[in-house]
Amino acid sequence: MTVTVDVTDTASRLRRAVTRLHRRLRQGALGGISPAQASALASVERLGRPSLGDLAAAEQVQPPSITRVVRDLAELGMLERLSDPADRRCVRVRLTARGRRELAAIRQRKNEFLTTTLAGLPPDQRDRAVELVAFLETLVDHA
């Protein structure tokens, strides 16, 4: 007997599961900063020294929104504003040592949650998790 997979149903279930997992990871890991602030820190790390416009584009928000996020992170000592030597009108940002530590702590808390959760599973389910990770990596690489 052949079982036909309902691709639409599977896609919907996958989306819901990934969204719920992302929410669980975010809730316990941010340590007092907002999701928008944590996302901006990660984008700055990835981009190097982005302009505010580049950061707004990467975060898919309007410039006034990223200006507020950057202002708040700068007040917390996690980002530093820089003048662009080629264009003094352009403001760039970079992570401070505190910002790098905060990102590392967020990632550590997320890893600890997942490690604890995986360790509590029976061995056969942990093996399935390894396969699932490979599948998700493939899915993301083809997107």
List the keywords.
Arc Repressor Mutant, subunit A; 143 residues; 6 helices
Write a structural description:
It is a single chain. The chain has helices at residues 7-29, 35-47, 52-59, 63-75, 97-119, 123-141, and strands spanning 79-84, 87-95. It is mainly alpha-helical. 13% of the residues are buried. Helix 2 (35-47) crosses helix 4 and helix 3 (52-59) crosses helix 4 (63-75). 69% of the residues lie in helices and 10% in strands. Strands 1-2 form a two-stranded antiparallel sheet. The protein has a single domain (24-141), classed as Winged helix-like DNA-binding domain superfamily/Winged helix DNA-binding domain (Arc Repressor Mutant, subunit A, Orthogonal Bundle).
Q: What's the tally of helices? A: 6
CATH superfamily: Winged helix-like DNA-binding domain superfamily/Winged helix DNA-binding domain
**Proportion of residues in helical segments:** 55-70%
Query: What Rg do the Cα atoms give?
Result: 19 Å
- Strand order within the widest beta sheet: 1-2
Give a short synopsis of this structure:
Helices cover 69% and strands 10% of the residues. By secondary structure, the protein is mainly α. It has a two-stranded antiparallel ribbon with strand order 1-2.
